[in-house]
Task: inverse folding
């Protein structure tokens, strides 16, 4: 079952495999699994999705990237998210390769290609992936 | 000469916002089966295959529950789990099974009516439908997407639309035209949930943004209902009272579950699926008399028109601008109204694109009957532009 914060927002359902990502995120560090052949991959899983081997290692990744696309959430289709609309869901191409989902608060003046940097917002101790705009 | 398969019979329940009577899915399947057999002029004893979606009364062992409940003896038994593309997947799987000779006549059953209330159900444990099962233990959605608010479908399709806008530019009036022309088609379909309710481009543009640039009148109308078809061998199809709709080509393709895993937001997986289907049928895009395109959102249709090769990538808006998509037009699209205007009664919504194509091929489409319908392009689109299926139907 999806865990929820006291204010009703859904929190990440962390597994043993993804725990190192979330532990680092609490310290505002972006770590991802890196395969010696195929490079970084995301989301966390036991084997590299390209070569299906398990000889990857957790490694710090550059926290920067560019917005691939985005959606402004006005309704709050999830009742647990209604308290914070509008907010923006962004799909970000990290400079190190993987694509990542996160939020930007409100309805920022974003565009596809906008440079962003990852930050983690802590809610009831759980890290939530967010992005903030940086200069191009 | 390999065997071929054809759709010969159908049943379609008029979609309603709220179904007047509660019914178990298995009972609804029995009712749909009876109507479909009568329509095709087949006996129940001839049925030797069943394909359905998940069955609420039998979360596992679904096909055996269906066979037992309907008193069938079957040699082909499938549950298809491809979201909105499931009915398209059901039809080609049935056709393929018939072609290789493991069965002769298959019922494709898609009920979408509410079950009787379970007196023991704990309402606190109701599944959160907007998560589409993504809140399961170990799922990537539960870790990254649900917390970010990426739930239901609109935000994912909005991301494809925003990417389209950045790459090619987006004309919201052209997307609105899809809604308007399909709504016009629905005016000739008494079964459509929006029969009798016309809309204009201005109405679409003025409807509220659900996930920019997707507006309310560009989104399917969820409702209740049900539909079924009977697929049989071309030999047996000959004695059906209606013109058989031969399943001459099909293709299926998927690469991802979530929009964040989609390799290219503007390259719908319908591309490889449609290419295979057209090649198998030996048909050209120009030969299509009816495009019966899965329309969860207007952007879904735009990406399918481009992806299936009706025009080059990035030129779908010009293609739509230059054509009349109504049943009397030069490029008839979703003549039943599409799910935008016919309604989306669960999986029967996806099946509606096939039911309409069969009706048009059989000459049973009433006031919206096309002057000629020998070849229909039908597709199914599931999840987040993920499960994509193309099927070519041709009149015998």
Result:
């Amino acid at each position: 079952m999806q865990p929820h914060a006291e204010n009703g927002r859904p929190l990440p359902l962390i597994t043993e495999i993804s725990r190192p990502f979330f532990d680092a995120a609490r310290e505002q560090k972006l770590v991802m699994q890196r395969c010696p052949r195929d490079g970084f991959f995301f989301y966390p899983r036991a084997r590299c999705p390209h070569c299906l081997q398990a000889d990857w290692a957790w490694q710090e990744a550059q926290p920067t990237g560019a917005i691939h696309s985005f959606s402004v959430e006005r309704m709050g289709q999830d009742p647990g998210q209604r308290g914070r609309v509008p907010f923006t869901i962004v799909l970000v191409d990290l400079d190190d390769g993987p694509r990542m989902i996160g939020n930007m608060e409100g309805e920022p003046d974003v565009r596809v290609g906008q440079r962003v940097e990852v930050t983690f917002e802590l809610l009831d101790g759980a890290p939530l992936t967010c992005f903030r705009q940086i200069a191009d | 000469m390999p065997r071929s398969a054809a759709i010969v019979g159908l049943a379609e329940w008029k979609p309603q916002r709220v179904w007047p009577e509660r019914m178990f899915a298995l009972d609804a399947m029995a009712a749909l089966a009876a109507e479909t057999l009568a329509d095709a002029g087949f006996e129940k004893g001839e049925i030797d295959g069943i394909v359905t979606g998940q069955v609420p009364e039998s979360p596992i062992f679904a096909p055996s529950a269906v066979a037992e409940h309907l008193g069938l003896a079957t040699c082909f038994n499938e549950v298809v789990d491809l979201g909105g593309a499931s009915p398209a997947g059901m039809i080609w799987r049935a056709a393929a099974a018939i072609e290789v000779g493991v069965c002769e006549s298959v019922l494709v059953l898609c009920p979408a009516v509410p079950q009787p209330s379970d007196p023991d159900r704990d309402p606190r444990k109701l599944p959160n439908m907007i998560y589409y099962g993504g809140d399961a233990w170990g799922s990537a959605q539960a870790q990254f997407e649900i917390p970010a608010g990426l739930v239901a479908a609109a935000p994912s399709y909005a991301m494809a639309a925003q990417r389209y806008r950045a790459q090619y530019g987006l004309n919201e009036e052209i997307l609105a035209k899809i809604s308007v022309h399909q709504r016009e088609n629905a005016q000739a379909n008494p079964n459509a949930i929006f029969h009798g309710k016309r809309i204009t481009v201005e109405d679409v543009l003025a409807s509220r943004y659900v996930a920019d640039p997707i507006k309310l009148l560009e989104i399917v109308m969820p409702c209740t209902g049900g539909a079924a078809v009977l697929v049989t061998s071309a030999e047996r199809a000959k004695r059906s009272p209606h013109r058989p709709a031969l399943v001459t080509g099909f293709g299926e393709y998927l690469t991802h579950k979530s929009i964040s895993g989609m390799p290219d937001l503007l390259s719908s997986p319908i591309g490889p699926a449609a290419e295979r289907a057209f090649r198998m049928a030996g048909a050209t895009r120009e030969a299509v008399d009816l495009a019966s395109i899965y329309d969860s959102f207007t952007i879904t249709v735009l990406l399918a028109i481009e992806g299936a090769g009706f025009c080059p990538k990035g030129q779908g808006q010009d293609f739509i601008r230059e054509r009349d998509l109504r049943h009397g037009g030069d490029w008839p699209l979703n003549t039943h109204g599409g799910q935008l205007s016919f309604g989306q009664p669960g999986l029967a919504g996806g099946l509606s694109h096939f039911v309409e194509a069969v009706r048009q091929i059989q000459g049973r489409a009433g006031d919206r009957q096309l002057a000629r319908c020998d070849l229909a392009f039908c597709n199914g689109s599931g999840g987040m532009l993920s499960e994509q299926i193309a099927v070519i139907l041709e009149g015998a």
Notes: Residues 5-115+219-395 of chain B form a domain with the Peroxisomal Thiolase; Chain A, domain 1 fold (CATH 3.40.47.10).
